User: Fold these one by one.
Assistant:
Number 1:
Amino acid sequence: MVALARVVARQRAEMDRLRDAAATAAVLERAKGALMATTGCSPDAAHEELLQRAKSGNRTLLEECWLTLGGLVPAERQTAERQTAEAADPRRSGTVSWEAGPTATGDLVDVLGQVGRDLVGVGSAQELAESLLEHLAPEVGAHAVILYERRHGNGLELIGHAGLGATLAAQWHHVPPVNGILPVDALTAGEPCWLEDVVKDRRHDLLIGDPPERWRSRAWLPVPGGDTARVALGVLRRPAGAFAPRERELLRSVARLCAGRLRAFDAPHEGADDDTTRNVQSVLDAVPGAAILLTPLRSASGEVEDYRIDAATSEAVDVFGRTGREMVGSHVLESYPSVAGEPLWLGYLDALMTGVPFESEPFAYQDVSEGVPVTATYSVRAAPLGDGLLVTWLRHDPAERQEQRLSDVQRLGNLGWANWNLVTQEITWSPQTYAVLGRDPALGPVPLERLPELVLPQDAAPLAHAITRLVHRARAFDVPFRVQAPDGVRHLRIVAEAVTEPDGTAADVHGFMQDLTAQRSAELALVESERAMLLQRGVLQAERALAARLQHALLPLPSAPVLLAGLRIEVAYLPAQSGIHVGGDWFSAIELPDDAALFVVGDVAGHGIGAVATMAQLRFTAKGMVSTGSSLTDALARLNRLLLHSRDSRATATMVLARYDPGTHVLTWAQAGHPPPLLVRGGEVRYLGRPRGMLLGASAHPVFESAEITLEPGDRLLLYTDGLVERTGEGIDAGFDRLADAVRDHERRRGTLEALLGSMLPEERRDDVCVLDIRMPLDADAGGDA
């Protein structure tokens, strides 16, 4: 039994020892992480620093670890917890032991230790913000973390964010140095700013967010603390309310952890310092061109994450304008961020894995020469050198680019150059010259004197004459000619000049040939189109002249007002001024056999000879029917049937017929889709109410009615066609109102009919205008036919 008890005791002791060792290792790792985060040192350097501190303070390593972790917590928190611990156990007063560690710092130290360890692995301010949000979300309820850095002029620039959103981050990327912006105030004062009442705070501070109520409590802390801070750490929460004391202490401690990590970002990159690097740099200093030595930076799994530039020639330059040794120590993704994932990046990896140099396809790149952007063509070559890559940029020969440009010009201009050396008999044609001539390149070029053999016979003599003058007198020429190509006849031109010897003898001839077939075809098509247009214009002008003569013969205008059945009649006819066709407007004013008077105004749809012919048919038929005793409505019905059964069954017309009895002074009138007459009586202007009547030629069964009005001495009645009142883009009622206003003003001024029409009509008329101006004088005498 005694032996068994000893074995159990030894096992328990071993377990306690292992447990203590595990706890010590965990505390050591947390302390190393905190020290690495606050100072930016490496893991080995942190371990060595803890050992040195423990030795100089005559403390154990575990005690030093707890002191280091306890230093993350603000002094006031440590004092309060130490007093609480001393009150509970007076033995701890004035002493520091590793057993006091957990009690002095509580769970805050554990949190900070984990934060510190994770911050060591971040490689940028953006990753730092994301890592902080991951830890602070469960600890303080954070929903967003923001890092601002002070720039020149005391403005701020966003260097990292998490939970903010891309749009909002872009809007708040730059912050001017103005009061009322909390990160600026925190850096200026060197003290944290706690915003815990968004309604109150937004009255005097400009808050980030859209809307600002998105985050109802915020904290802004300077990193590091004090007036030397250059980074502001923002922690934003959606719920309202104050930050608890533990939360404030945690955020202050986290700010101290960030200070070391941010210093590590700013520390200059240290390039490899081995003999190979120094030797390569000395060589690169002496060679021209752009070249850099890259050392791959690998992850824990061995994958290449980036490359460090360890040497560079003086002509090497990155996107920031750094050249030569200024680039040494920087990373490829920093100096050339656009290369990630591109063929160049994949080519670098392939060269590292296979050991075979990689050479890229030529690509265009824009340089800046004396402040002017210049696009050049480059290739990149990456050759393995030791464990790294020697990358060179090869700029292509400008002569090659010029040759390519010349080839492009020839192709786009459909021309090719040619050269004949008359001394050596060497002939050089560009490939495009064969294409222009439609000649097989396998047949080779043709001597200058035999060039006329390639053209059509009728063009050979002028070309031969021009070549003779060029060879013997050095006279440059520009000669058009044609050739028979596989795709048909081509229209070409040749332009050539000679380079002469001192005695004036032509020694070399150079020039170009151009295919003008497409241009010539377009010219011929244009000439043909112009010929057709001239022919059509002549036909239209002849038609207009014939229609005008017909209209004048069928519709003679009286030279002065006439008296008819005791009424004074004035007539106006104005043809359209736009277009080349004559319209179908007409009028009639005749005396009937029973001494009555007939007034007609009509308008045939359309223009040209057809409209004039229809107008004549309707005019004379209407006069004949009414003269032989037909009523006005019967005449309109018969005219409608006439149009429906005419050769052009699509013809339509409007018309107003009026019969005046001088004995009773009664005017009887009817209309077919025509504007109503305008009556002026005693200074009042009004339109007569239209009786029913449909457009002529529109229906086989129209209804026509008539109306009567008794004219009084001094009355004035206007019959007119729609060209007087219609305007493009407006309703007909506006035209009626305009006519009434013009007539009313005309009556006051006692102006002429010509003046009335001048005030009504625009300079450019699109339709004919016909007007019958009928007046009843106080003592009217009967007159003749108008």
Number 2:
Amino acid sequence: MIVNMNIPRGKKYSKQWIGFWSFFIFFTFIFVTSPTTFRTIEKNDIKFEIFGVNEDNTNSNISQVKDELFNIKAGEKEAVSLNLNFLKSSFIQLEFFAQEDYIDGDILFEIFKNDKLLEKEIIKTGEKPLVIKSYFTPNDKIKIVASINGENQAWAKLRIGKIAISDIFLLIFSLFFWLLVLFLTFRKNQAAIILGVYSIFLLSIYAENTTFNQIDIKSLLANSGILIAISLLLALIFNFSKNIKIANIIALFTALLFFVLASVPLMFISYKLAFNIPLEKEALYSIFQSNTSESLEFITSFVPIGSLLFIIFSLLFLFYISWWHRNSKVKSFDFTTIFILIVSTSIIAISYIDNMKLPNFIKEHYNTYIEELEKFKDIQNKKNFDSNFEASKEEIGETYIFVIGESLNKRHMQLYGYTRQTTPNLQKLYNDGEILKLDNVLSNHVLTMSTLSLALTEAYIGSSKKYFDSASIVDILKKADFETIWLTNQNLLGAWDNLVSIIASNADQTISINNSIGTTTRTQNYDGELIKYLNKFLETKTSKNRAIFIHLMGSHLAYCQRFPQEYRVFNDDLDEKTFGKNLASKKDIKNFVNCYDNSVLYNDFVVSSFIESIKKQEGVNALIYMPDHAEEVFKAYAHDPGKFTFNMTQIPFLFWFSQNYKNKYSTKYENILKNQKQYFSNDRLYDTLIGLTDIKTPLYKSDFDLSSNNYFINEKDASTLHGKIKFTQNDNFFYWQKRNFDYINNTYISDNFIVNGINSLGKLSEVLYFGFKSFGLKLTLDSDNKLVIKDNNSLSFEDILNSINLGNIDKIYIETQNSKDILKEIENSSSKFDIKSKLILDSSEIVKIKTSLDNKNFIKEIKNNNITRFSKKFYLVEYKSNFD
């Protein structure tokens, strides 16, 4: 067969192909840009007036939160009204909904257009929002009247969206340009390049949509202008390359350029695919701090195979286009036409380049990140030469060790009620009364830099002072004439690359056992290597006070790299008996959980070894251990703030004090004991360390110091993610269960409560650690005639009885069918374990509480049921656990 090599690719069936690719661009453009989607209005789109909001009209309020968002609260005496005037003719969507944080009350809305009533409806929490869509011109008068409906007050929100005629015109204009360039390049057999670049355009617009929940038309024009200009330039270059026989080199260059252009949108899209949330500022900060090795660790641990396949497929597709095109028989362009198009699209791009969302998003936050670090570095440098604050301490010869952990969730520590024995050494120290632990501690953020920027400086949540304009704890110690030592297994990433390295470099001595500083986060040594460095310093006598900071790698990703082989203790599947059916069914988290628990076990050895070292020292000595943040392990979210759960804030806080310290600073020690059950956020660590070391300085707040009699925290104000999320939020079951249990405990009725539905040893361990002494079970007989949990047949009644200290148990309520066989087996077990007096089989003795322990209305339910210490009944309550 003879093939005519002079026929340009695509000439045969050219009409069909141009039709196909035209339809492809048309439909994909419409699909990605969604021209009928309501977009956020801008500041210049609207004018408004507010009426009825004044001091006499109590609780009245209308405020513009964002350009498109208003908060509205109806007044007690009269309605409030908002008059809107849209400055451009547009299709407008008004969306009214009740604010979720307020559960009481509702609002009656009346919406008028040119004095004609459009809608009248009551907006209630938890119900569908009221949505009004209409076409408005600048001559239309819109009036929104909000009236209180009933006795209770409530907030509502109004969100305004638009579809502007001008936006639709610009979309059509952009689509026309893409089709025009397609026709032009197709005639010259260069359409492959435009299709490759257009694919990058689709990725960019889709990434923008998934990140910002809408597409900015000006950003779309900028993307179109830049990418069309690039595609035309590539076409010219390819024309030139064919003449000098370097088409292969140009094809590789084109592929490389495609990869670079696609990298940013692919990063945003893959993050969205991996975590189902858009990439935010905090995640970018982590990327800025990471290097190639750490990024690879993150990808292998968290990014699902679907996201990786999407990235690989996208890059292979772009490479295929550029490589396939190298053999195309291209025709010469009319230079004048190409030049006019390149100039035209470049002018469009330059006109709107400041509106490009994704690159500007990265640039803005990168500049902020660098600016903050530079400010902090400059201020720290100035302090080294000219400290303009006072800090002093009278006593000498004292040693303090401050251990900064990494990514440790106390809910995975045996010491805090975890079912696995992950902290045997610390548990023994605690049982022997040698260490103190705090239960109600949270991290101020879930990223290391964000957390330690407040924990190690005088800045705190709610402060007007920023970390980069604050004294660090090292500054205070050095000013008070402490010898300061910083030992770390963390990657310092060079001398000035992150907040922690800046603080660490200001210590008198900074020692890192991570030898590949600045190139990798893979540790050459495990944390245990730091023990000998600590011992070396402790053996060196000094007349000065001494502060030794130890920054561990702890349970940092990837978890399996954080412990030696002999600590690989937990390897089996997550069994139903221990973890429950839900967690046991998640086979994909087995290694994730096991590796994390092994890292906790090794961390137990390391921290307890530090304590054993300091115990050998004479004099006034203390050791404090606290990690930066925790991890969400069972959901495999790690500590991504975009997937925030309160598990990421659940950190331990441990103290060891020598007897000499307790004697010399007895008041401080007693205050810590007194404040042991108080809530504590680690943005207050700086002040607590100053208090513990007894340094006198004006840069100190006694109400933030756990060792002070003035310590106080308003639980309602406690927050994380630097104020974004209140700790008292409705879904924080850790807080509400503790608060509700404290109530029934303080009113002496906790012994009347039985936790219902125990279906795993993990949940039972949590419940008993929490403080309950009674629990309920649903039992049945399995095929071997053995008593097992109804919802988890792998867990037997005897397994439960063997796993606990029955001397600490008051009651066991058994809910079961009253068959003779079951009752006989219960009788046998009660005789074997001598628990007959503890069993409750009669449901008439039991009252089920409708409201679960984690509900904010639980206390109200208790009061409504008139439950007192003299009540004769037992009350069955639902307890929420990580094992559910």
